[in-house]
Records
---
Amino acid sequence: MAEKITDSDVLLVVDVQNDFCPGGSLAVPGGDEIVPLVNRLAGRFQHVILTQDWHPPAHSSFASANPGRQPFEVVTFPYGPQVLWPDHCVQETRGAAFHDGLHIPHAELIIRKGYRRAIDSYSAFFENDRTTPTGLAGYLRERGLSRIFLAGLALDFCVRYSAEDGHRCGFDIVVVEEATRGIDLNGSVDAARRAFAEREIAAIAADDVT
Ligand code: VGL
Ligand code: ZN
């Protein structure tokens, strides 16, 4: 199923940041391997938006900010279950910077998320309370961008939540799975694929994006 890219399509490149790549504090296995493909894909789109995980020091999602807790434990926050992470993507650190190989000079917007200390934010649309908006839906609507292709890190967290929320907001969503990698905690990659299938969120091979 080849898809012709049009002026109302946008590529959303999720969190291709040093901390999510090998050597980073929350490294996604093979996270850096997607960079050349993401660059090539981006070259086919007129419109590209990047997201950047952007936490203040001692963010509530860090295990280090929750006494007695370890990274990857799940705890209950006022808005529901929350995985506790190693410290990562702290504002203005090298870990929060985009991977050095990411080269998308025509990216139109960088949307930062996770900057409220008390709420984590996986999705590019809503924080983890699923009600606080990032502003992306309004931006896309005003720009007439109606179909979102997704790439980046991590498939089972920020890409998954962005896909589901984008779908819920009425956008057409296409996940370019080859241009993603997952963290895979307790079957979370399979759960992401099931969630996409249930919502008829399309998957596409990178070569079919033309
Ligand atoms: C992410 C965990 C914590 C992601 C961000 O980009 O998938 N995962 N913060
Ligand atoms: Zn984060």
---
Amino acid sequence: MTERPPFYITTAISYVNGAPHLGHAYEAISTDVIARYKRLDGYDVFFLTGTDEHGQKVEKTARACGKEPKEFCDEISNQFIAMVDALNITNDAFIRTTDSRHILSSRMVWKRLEEAGDIYLSSYTGWYSVRDEAFFSEEELTKDGDRWLAPSGAEVEWIEEPSYFFRLSAYQDKLLAHYEANPDFIMPPHRRNEVVNFVKQGLTDLSVSRTSFNWGVPVPGDDRHIMYVWLDALTNYITAVGYPDENADSFQKYWPADVHVIGKDILRFHAVYWPAFLMSAGIRIPKKVFGHGFLTIEGQKMSKSLGNVVTPDEMKATYGVDQMRYFLMREVPYGSDGSVAPEAIVQRINSDLANDLGNLGQRVLSMIHKNCDGILPTPGALTQDDDALLIAAKDLLEITRQEMADLAIHRMLEAIWRVVADANRYVDAQAPWALRKRDPARMGTVLYVLADVIRQIAIFAQPVIPEAASALLDQLAVVDEEGARSFSSLEDSLSSGARLPMPSPIFPRFVVDDPA
Ligand code: MSP
């Protein structure tokens, strides 16, 4: 057996200052789709997600709720664990930055930066946004009455305190050289330009410790300071694969990560600070950072004050988990911003899922039941039309691989649904129901070709709609073992003569309640 190539993929770790919202769900689902696709394609995948629990923002929120930070973190972190469960996310690990091994790992990174001569003590005087957990220079801010706002719209506060600094300025040229030599390091391409321009403007040293509160990882050798939450948070990606034990099998196998999936708002931390920390610590740099877009609700930013926050639980309860996953992956080009509107969700469910895919499966499988006693027929000689449809399905492997290499999840889905449309046109053109009396052998061939194409479509659809795809494969009697549902089995065909279970629709239509 050939060894499976490793593939390490991560989401950002979410702050635990509030319950999970749709943006978190979107990131988890999209990363899950990539991880599942890679597994089906024979990779040894390690998929990490988790929670970011230190820092001023979390401490403040916990206190405002009258709780100790750790108790508060436990509660909210559990909600994130429940969310990934509810959304059928197949993460291999869930990291919490309050885990003791992570604290050890962050302190080790600090020591390496110090040994490299990149840490020095001074004091920070300037602006800080607690919501962004980020420092800003005056030029980056805008004035709103007598308040100063960060580019995110968050209010900033003035701080003056002793602080250790990281010599970020020393990494400007190295970072630019890295972007130049690795054009795919930052994706999609327009985000890359943003980062390159930011670094070209000049990097100043970064404050990496705080003294005015203590919810964080103590700085080795000086526990009046706690580490800047981002230094601790970014380290999660190596802790999870075994750091500081760089000889651990998991570290050797999975690091450097293949891709960090994150939102566009935190690109600077991942594409500038993180590689600089790693360079300083003498650790290899991740291969790619992908900045996805932001979800809005009917064009507006999701926010508590606008009262338009959609929770993942609500969306799942209303539409179903596969429906939600499909909509989010199909509607919003991956890498761009996108709006979530109920009409668009219903349209996708009824047209793409219930009608195009669901009806195709139901029509074909019930014809096999009615006309062939539920036994998969034996195909005869194939016509040009049969070949054309089978080739369209066969081409999906190469097409989807290319799309997924660019992480163009929406285009992968478009490609699969083009074959769904081909198959529907083929049913209409071949009209197998009319062949029953006239040419039953030909009817058998047509139904067999369709069943086999549906099998292939279902295999490709698994990463996005795992429950429905699995139900469809069950209905085609494709066993769920020994890779029978992975890409290596695409070339196999269905066994004629197999008895198929009773079909049942995989996607009900969504009926909008009439407002009374
Ligand atoms: N804790 C940091 C990440 C540390 S990674 C070492 C953080 N947390 S967060 O909870 O604010 O955001 C987690 C992820 O969700 C980020 O990648 C962020 O971009 C993403 N999203 C938050 N709101 C979003 C939308 N409205 N739409 C899509 N993704 C969004 O940042």
